[in-house]
Design brief:
This protein has 532 residues and is mainly α. It folds into three domains: 15-205, Growth Hormone, Chain: A, CATH 1.20.1250.20; 213-265; 272-532, Up-down Bundle (Growth Hormone, Chain: A), CATH 1.20.1250.20. Helices cover 71% and strands 0% of the residues. The protein has helices spanning 16-38, 43-50, 59-62, 64-87, 89-108, 113-142, 147-175, 180-183, 185-199, 213-231, 243-263, 279-308, 314-338, 348-363, 371-386, 389-398, 403-436, 456-465, 467-471, 477-509. It is globular, with a radius of gyration of 23 Å.
Length: 532
């Protein structure tokens, strides 16, 4: 991707022209980031809307509305730099907004869970380009030496997304319907398109590097097939020998192995795996991958716990999840200031230790755990998250130089998105399997519409989410009470898996630099968030 002008071409202050462009980028970031978190609170609603008592939709199935979106993000990130040079940043940015908005509109029209998942892919393809393109546009407009001040502006949607997303999603579902968590993007998208048309300067397409088409054809299908096989386990009663499971997993592994082998051959691969020769980058990515899989996979279950186990509305569930985002808002700016003064190896392990403490609290949850205790644990996890993510990004890129910075940033961002996809798929499968271990209530096998009968855990969840349907079944209260205990235990067992992953993450984190690092980053270079 072409370099921005040198520092002397730009004024020192943030002028109105730059703020106008920053407004376009922030609006795009808000749409993309909010949509990652707004859907989390809607998963139980998707189960109710797209499933029936006779043909329920498993939690691991509806979780693909999150997994498909993050996989689409991971797919498009490495293509953004090539496409920006090939088609121009303004044209591509407006195309990304259009794809995201069109995908949102289609999501609202979905009549089945599989249709919704497919439309989420289209939405993710647009959303995945918005952040890296926005950073490129702002760098060219403001110059690298003013990016620190502009990052404070871009940081607003990054910090507010985890807080406002679940609350907004819960409120829209409660006062309107689930369709509105997607329809809300339509006016925002139209405003963003008009704003971008007038605010962004037209840039001409430039000669770009060759696109690694084979890499594209290997990476995303391979990962999608692997995760599809894993997520099919609940439908096959945990049988790895089922063709739907092992064929998908094997095909996915083979495609991903072929992608790794291929990545060392072309001059400009989709992902530059040669960067793993840099020890600092390797340790940072391993730490980031484990952390993101555990944290984001575990966080997905929290609003579902509040709705299905505690009987809270979608709005209340979103409000109860907010302390995690508030915790991150407190520590992220502090960690950002400390990274230039204290070695990363003394910051990140502290953040992970806080997550270990908070996640351990979630492993103890029951159907009656006091809310103040859960809220405190979520806040502690938020503190840890704020002290972990940005320092990891910083240390990973510090020892890189020149074009390596952009390629390393691409590798980091994709690793995070893939880890989130793996974490969401894994945690949803574990929870679904745990819920399916509950016994079937005697006599429900003969009830019309219940198919093979109703498990105690699902009877308890039904009593909290659809009391009118539950009352019509006249079930044994004792069975429902046992089911509620077992359902809460299923959540706590799932959190044990996430907790173990966070503990394992401490191992590579302790290998991070514990002395002051020599940085190769300079003002004249492309900032870390820009994709090459």
């Amino acid at each position: 991707m072409s370099q921005p002008a040198v520092q002397s071409d730009y004024p020192d202050h943030i002028d109105a022209a730059v703020l106008k462009i920053a407004g376009v980028v922030v609006l795009g970031a808000i749409m993309s980031i909010l949509d990652i978190t707004v859907v989390n609170v809607a998963l139980p609603t998707f189960q109710d809307e797209f499933g029936t008592t006779d043909s329920p939709v498993s939690y691991s199935h509806v979780a693909w509305t999150v997994t498909a979106y993050t996989l689409a993000l991971a797919t498009v990130i490495p293509l953004t730099g090539w496409a920006a040079d090939r088609f121009g940043t303004k044209r591509l940015y407006m195309t990304a907004i259009f794809l995201f908005t069109a995908g949102s509109a289609l999501c609202a029209t979905a009549s089945s869970i599989d249709m919704l998942i497919g439309f989420r892919v289209l939405q993710g393809l647009g959303g995945g380009m918005l952040m890296p393109l926005g950073m490129t546009i702002m760098t060219r407009a403001a110059g690298p030496h003013r990016m620190g001040r502009l990052m404070a502006i871009l940081g607003v949607p990054m910090l507010l997304g985890p807080i406002l997303g679940p609350i907004l999603g819960g409120w829209l579902i409660q006062v309107a319907s689930w369709h509105w968590i997607f329809l809300i993007n339509l006016p925002l998208g139209v405003i963003a398109l008009v704003y971008a048309w007038f605010a962004l300067a037209k840039d001409e397409p430039q000669r770009s590097e060759s696109l690694d088409l084979l890499g594209v054809a290997l990476m995303s299908p391979g990962l999608a097939l692997f995760l599809f096989g894993i997520s099919s386990l609940p439908a096959e009663n945990g049988d790895f020998g089922a063709p739907r499971v092992w064929v998908s997993v094997l095909a996915g592994v083979l495609l991903m192995a072929a992608f790794v082998w291929h990545s060392f051959r072309p001059e400009h691969p989709l992902l530059d795996l040669r960067l793993f020769r840099n020890r600092n980058l390797t340790i940072s990515i391993v730490t980031m991958f484990l952390f993101a899989a555990a944290f984001f996979g575990g966080l997905l279950l929290v609003p579902t716990y509040f709705q299905q186990i505690r009987g809270e509305s979608t709005l209340h569930a979103g409000l109860l999840v907010a302390p995690q985002g508030l915790g991150a808002m407190v520590t992220m700016p502090i960690a950002g200031r400390l990274v230039d003064k204290i070695p990363i190896g003394r910051i990140v392990p502290v953040g992970l230790a806080l997550i270990v403490v908070g996640m351990f609290g979630l492993t103890q949850i029951t159907a009656t755990t006091p809310y103040p205790l859960i809220i405190a644990m979520l806040a502690v996890m938020g503190f840890g998250m704020g002290a972990t993510m940005m320092p990891l990004f910083t240390t990973a890129l510090r020892t890189l130089s020149g074009a390596q910075v952009a390629r390393g940033s691409t590798l980091l961002n994709i690793s995070q998105q893939i880890a989130s996809s793996c974490g969401v798929a894994t945690m949803s499968v574990i929870l679904t399997n745990q819920l399916n271990n509950s016994p079937i209530i005697p006599g429900t096998q003969d009830v019309p519409g219940l198919g093979g009968g109703l498990r105690e855990t699902y009877a308890a969840i039904l009593s909290n989410t659809r009391p009118e349907n539950f009352a019509a079944l006249h079930l044994d209260p004792g069975a429902v009470a046992r089911g509620l205990v077992d359902a809460a235990t299923a959540f706590s067992h799932s959190y044990w898996v996430a907790w173990v992953l966070v503990v394992i993450t401490l191992i590579p984190a302790l290998m991070l630099p514990r002395k002051r690092e020599t940085t190769n980053l300079a003002d004249k270079q492309v900032p870390p968030a820009v994709v090459d």
